[in-house]
Structures are given as C-alpha cells and as structure tokens.
C-alpha cells in the first residue's frame, strides 16, 4: 500500500465517523475534586502597616485569627479606597524641539498649497494658471525640503549595537 492510499483511508474513516456519538459521554465523567469550591470562603490575615499613607486594617479583616470590630479601627470609605487604586499620572512630556525658519517654511508650504487649492475649489474662485502652479509647487517643494532635511544619521552616543533607530 502506498502512503497516499493510507492517507486516503484515514480520511475516509474520519469522514465516516463524523456523525457518530462519543463512546463515553461527558456527563458520566466524575467531577474533579480540584474544581470543588469550599463551602465557607477563606479569610486572609492582614498585619498592620506602620507606613504613612497606608490604609491599614479595615472592619472584617483578620489579625492573628481575631476579627476586628468597628471600634478597634476606623475604616476608610470605599470611595476613597477605589479612587487612588491603580491611578497613574504620567510625567509631563518633554518640550517640542525648536524649528528653524527653513523648516517652518517647509511645513507652511506643505500644508498651505493644498489648503489654498481646497479653499479655492470650495469657494468657486477662478484660479489662474500661475496660482495653481504655485500651490502645487509649494506642496512638492515643502515635502522635498522636509525629506532632505530629515536626518537619517544615527546618534553619536548610540554605540555599536543600538537596535532599531526610528
């Protein structure tokens, strides 16, 4: 028998047994003991903290097996506890780099040319040939100026293995 005919026979058996029921039904299988949940939930033991700003113990917490009462420790309100939990305030971003006059003019040309064409088209202004040419040339010139001025050199302090450079 060839390898191809063996594979064909296996596929025929799979297709023939597609609608057959399983030999052992999953309802007959016993429930694993590791999945059983205990009847009474476990309580965790909390030790008081001496750090400032730590909310410490609350009502219902266990300390060495003894349940705390409200008169033993004043609990914080739930709103105060939830407000500070998981709050992250990122540091302020670094300032934007200062642009020289040529870069500013390139950005103005890049966006100014198409902006003029868009406003002129929406307002149904009659565009002279020189104005149309100037707007398109400003766009292309601004793009080329920004690409040419874009530095593709690696930083001097990057070392021999600096990974990806963006």
TrEMBL record:
What residue spans carry the region label Disordered?
16-98
Q: Where are the transmembrane segments?
A: 105-123, 129-148
The record's keywords, sorted A to Z, are: Membrane, Transmembrane, Transmembrane helix
List the biased-composition ranges (Basic and acidic residues): 41-61
Record-given protein name: Uncharacterized protein
* Source organism (scientific name): Nonomuraea rosea
